[in-house]
């Protein structure tokens, strides 16, 4: 394995929220801003450049309290970024997530006309994310955000979503989340799979060589693009009661219910992967970050008899499977944060509460990372030889979905998979480096 430090990164210029894993547990708040006055927006950039945390912070990240910032394409225009610079950004980013809805599977009830406003509208200019190990320290991060907004009458907060990550790291469906994290060359931060070689920094941060061997396209001028990255924010509503009902209706016992849930996900609810414990849950393994992601597929389970080929985690990251030659070109940093109250254990009826995940997908290539995975691996089964069969957990199913669990002598087949996850909104953002924030503040056009 290559040393994760063999390609130095300018960590002091990279936002902490780009690279550093989040603490456990933690609380977070997403705030959307609209810029009505160009000069006020530039003043905001100046203030944020002094309070946004850098990845070079030498403190233990578990104890950190972070404030991160991203700008939408409409936000960059509101700041008066020159046209030549605007046209140098990735074309998916320039279009915006709402315009890319069909390619992302955001159709039907997940389509932009049903999104929670102002998500997906031209009013969203800035995305602030405050994060801390607990609500007390989160308030300190929010205080820094409020100080940055103080007396800026031309900038308005237009939306807020409070989130949380429990000590159990469970998401609303009940599975441990936030397990898989890639090693990135030069970051000094190890990945969670010792059997996966570190990825080139240019897959996640602009201005460095990527897995293709060259520099990924970068916004111009260099001071604006270098050490920045793209981020896809998603608000995903989870139909927890519907998920529980489906498991109950298609299982013969509580034990079979848990096995079915694990087969759909690829992991037991504790986080223990089927690849390492195929017959029963192993909570100690699931809670061990040194072991719960330390596996591959080619040797342990090439045919998918243990971890079904179409399950969620095998689609999201095929690891060293038969498509291994291209998997590294589609890796992302994924971060999910639960929102809303938990549905009490054992309850099968929906209580009407809004609950789910705020997701952030970070990478230098929106097209071949986030959009490719959504369209080709989540909402299509061609790369697995499964045709039109979608991801059973997050795929855009319509009630006619199916799922096959390899089993001898006859596979177990599930029919009538409904849509368990509905997109409530999203945005494409650009997370600039700290120097870029100051450049934006100094614009004089």
From TrEMBL:
Span of domain DyP dimeric alpha+beta barrel: 65-149
GO terms of molecular function: heme binding; metal ion binding; peroxidase activity
GO cellular-component term (any): cytosol
Compositional bias (Basic and acidic residues): 290-301
Domain of life: Bacteria
Alphabetical list of PROSITE patterns matching this protein: DYP_PEROXIDASE
Keyword Cell membrane (UniProt): no
Co-factor(s): heme b
Renumbered residue ranges of the record's region Disordered: 290-309
PANTHER family on file: BLR4509 PROTEIN, DEFERROCHELATASE/PEROXIDASE
Protein name, as recorded: Peroxidase
């Amino acid at each position: 394995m290559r040393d994760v430090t063999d390609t130095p990164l300018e960590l002091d210029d990279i936002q902490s929220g780009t690279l550093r894993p989040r603490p456990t547990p933690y609380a977070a708040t997403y705030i959307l801003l609209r810029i009505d006055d160009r000069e006020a927006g530039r003043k905001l950039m100046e203030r944020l450049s002094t309070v946004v945390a850098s990845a070079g912070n030498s403190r233990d990240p578990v104890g950190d309290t972070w404030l991160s910032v991203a700008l939408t394409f409409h936000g960059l225009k509101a700041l008066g970024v020159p046209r030549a610079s605007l046209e140098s950004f990735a074309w998916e980013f320039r279009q915006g997530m709402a315009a890319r809805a069909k390619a992302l599977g955001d159709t039907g009830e997940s389509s932009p006309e049903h999104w929670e406003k102002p998500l997906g509208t031209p009013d969203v200019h800035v995305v602030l994310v405050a994060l801390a190990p607990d609500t007390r320290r989160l308030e300190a991060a929010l205080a820094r955000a409020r100080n940055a907004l103080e007396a800026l009458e031309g900038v308005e907060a237009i939306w807020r979503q409070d989130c949380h990550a429990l000590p159990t790291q469970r998401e609303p469906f009940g599975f441990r989340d936030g397990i898989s994290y890639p090693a990135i060359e030069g970051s000094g931060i190890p990945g969670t799979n010792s059997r996966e070689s570190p990825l080139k920094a240019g897959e996640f941060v602009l201005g460095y060589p990527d897995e293709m061997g060259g520099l990924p396209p970068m916004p111009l001028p260099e001071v604006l693009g270098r050490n920045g990255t793209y981020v896809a924010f998603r608000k995903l509503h989870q139909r927890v009661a519907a998920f529980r009902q489906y498991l109950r209706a298609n299982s013969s016992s509580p034990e079979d219910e848990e096995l079915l849930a694990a087969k759909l996900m690829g992991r037991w609810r504790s986080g223990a992967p089927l690849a390492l414990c195929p017959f029963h849950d192993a909570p100690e393994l699931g809670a061990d970050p040194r072991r719960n992601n330390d596996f591959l597929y080619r040797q342990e389970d090439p045919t998918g008899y243990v971890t079904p080929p179409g399950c969620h985690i095998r689609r999201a990251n095929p690891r060293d499977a038969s498509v291994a030659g291209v998997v590294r070109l589609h890796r992302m940093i994924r971060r999910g944060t639960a929102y809303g109250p938990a549905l009490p254990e054992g309850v099968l009826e929906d209580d009407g509460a809004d609950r789910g995940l705020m997701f952030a997908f970070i990478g230098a290539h929106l097209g071949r990372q986030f959009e490719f995975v959504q369209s080709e691996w989540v909402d299509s089964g061609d790369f697995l030889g499964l045709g039109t069969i979608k991801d059973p957990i997050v795929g855009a199913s319509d009630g006619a979905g199916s799922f096959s669990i390899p089993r001898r002598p006859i596979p177990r087949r599930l029919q009538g998979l409904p849509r368990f996850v509905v997109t409530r909104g999203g945005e494409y953002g650009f997370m600039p480096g700290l120097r870029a924030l100051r450049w934006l503040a100094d614009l004089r056009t």
